[in-house]
Amino acid sequence: MGQSRLLPFVGLLFFHLIPNQLCKTCEVSEEKYFLLSPLWKTMTHSKYTMGTQSADVLLSLRLVGIQNQTLIQPLSQQVRRSGGSKGVNLSSGQLALITLALGACHTPDEAFIYDNHLLSRLENKFQAEIKNMEAHNGSPLTNYYQLSLGALALCLFHGRYSTTQVAELFAPGNKNYYFHGQFVVDIGAMAVLALTCIKRGLANGQTKTEKEDLRSIDNHIQSLVDKILLEKKRNGLIGNTFSTGIAMQALFISSDYYKESKWNCEQTLKTVLEEIAQGVFNIPIAAAQILPALVGKTYLDVNRDSSCTSGLGNFDISSHKPMSTKPPNSPSNISIHYSVKINEIYSTTVTVPSGSVFLDVMEEAQKKNETLFGFTVEQSSWGPFITSVQGLKASNTDRTYWELLSSGRSLSQGVGNYVVHDGEDLEVRWSKY
Ligand code: B12
Ligand SMILES: *[C@@H]1O[C@H](CO)[C@@H](O)[C@H](O)[C@H]1NC(C)=O
Ligand SMILES: *[C@@H]1O[C@H](CO)[C@@H](O)[C@H](O)[C@H]1NC(C)=O
Ligand SMILES: *[C@@H]1O[C@H](CO)[C@@H](O)[C@H](O)[C@H]1NC(C)=O
Ligand SMILES: *[C@@H]1O[C@H](CO)[C@@H](O)[C@H](O)[C@H]1NC(C)=O
Questions:
Q1: Which residue CA neighbors atom 5 of ligand 2 most closely?
Q2: Are 152 and 190 in contact (CB under 8 A)?
């Protein structure tokens, strides 16, 4: 056999020797990096009040290679503050994100993880989630997005966990992958990231248990990838706008689980760039969750030595032209129909200035009648989250929450961001997911 005919064969062999590292990405080319500047602006021009929000942003900036200390230092400081001794009330996923952000790219921040025992704290939080599942009909304290983040951080930073337990927990039929019976792409994709990390660690497993765990995890990944691809929309988004970034990461690292023809990555990328131009990713955490995938990075690159130096590192996005600012709102008032639905429906009509958000409508209604429209919110990394209306409180254990709707359709933004329109029919509904 001549050399030229042998070469492709050697190439093929090479791929077969490292099947676990197979990774297909499509990314924004360098001359188009300026298209990412709206994300950049959102992430750098915001005040961060929540430690976990800073963690998501810090993780993202580090992964894409930003090393500007003027930006990184204040974020890092805030993340360290929230992960310190006062962070006793952090949820499993919050602690996992803090660990990922501080451990990303092998900076001096990494020492904080070990000095503050973040991994053993995370191990305890992870077990507490499982205890709650055992006591409450399979419902964790938080949700499977956070369990996935937890498993991912424990895997990447060599915390303790049982692969057999993870293989059981993350079976694709588990109810926690579904809200209202519908597969949640964000959750499935984060699980694929965690399971792939664990799979790579098991690749050379020798014992019978290791081999069984590997086979089971491999099957889970296959099934989750199939489900993620079923949620691909005609315009290329996967799930919705805000789940697409994590779904892209999951599909990058799992390319040996689907045929190339099953996903047109370039189309997804094109649609995401259009949405960016329209200002859709206008809160820091939304920008942080989409950015890594756009430059071909995934959360599995967090502790890889060579990552973090490539990407946007040397690109000065800030020098590019600012986004066109919206014209100031005309000072007109609009009228909104608003209801609270528990079993009965309680309705009212309120007047708010145009440009108002859902939360403004709720506050107007509350002023009218505190008993019917009184509510409480909690700040979260996505903005204000409605925790109770008429004194009725949402509960993770019961899988209840206050769902936001417009004309009967569930919204994909929260009360702090959704801009309302004249004549709109808004509802907050007591729902079970
Ligand atoms: C789990 C989850 C839920 C659970 C939260 C309770 C639980 N069991 O943990 C439930 C089902 C209740 C829920 C509800 C909603 N959610 Co939700 N949720 C998620 C999910 C999958 C994971 C969140 C998480 O744990 N993050 C990790 C931890 C470490 O971060 P955290 O900040 O501490 O997490 C808390 C907040 O995220 C908060 N939360 C969850 N969803 C939302 C949504 C908004 C707008 C806010 C302000 C807070 C919030 O609950 C988390 C647990 O306490 C994310 C997916 C994602 N990509 O982030 C979507 C996500 C955040 N949710 C989203 C949406 C739209 C909603 C709803 C507005 C849907 C609706 N039409 O009613 C409601 C919130 C309404 C309200 N009451 O204010 C969007 C937000 C997009 C955006 N631009 O704002 C996301 C990104 C999903 C998506 N791809 O569209 N959600
Ligand atoms: C670093 O970030 C700061 C704050 O955004 C900015 O003013 C400065 O120009 C940046 N420096 C470089 C070298 O990009
Ligand atoms: C932790 O939560 C408990 C109970 O919710 C609360 O009493 C306590 O003040 C919180 N601690 C901190 C440091 O936030
Ligand atoms: C809008 O409503 C407020 C409060 O009801 C009122 O003071 C204001 O004059 C109204 N503005 C317009 C343009 O109608
Ligand atoms: C609020 O609504 C309840 C029930 O309809 C009514 O009994 C009460 O008087 C109302 N309160 C105000 C301040 O209008």
A1: 71
A2: yes
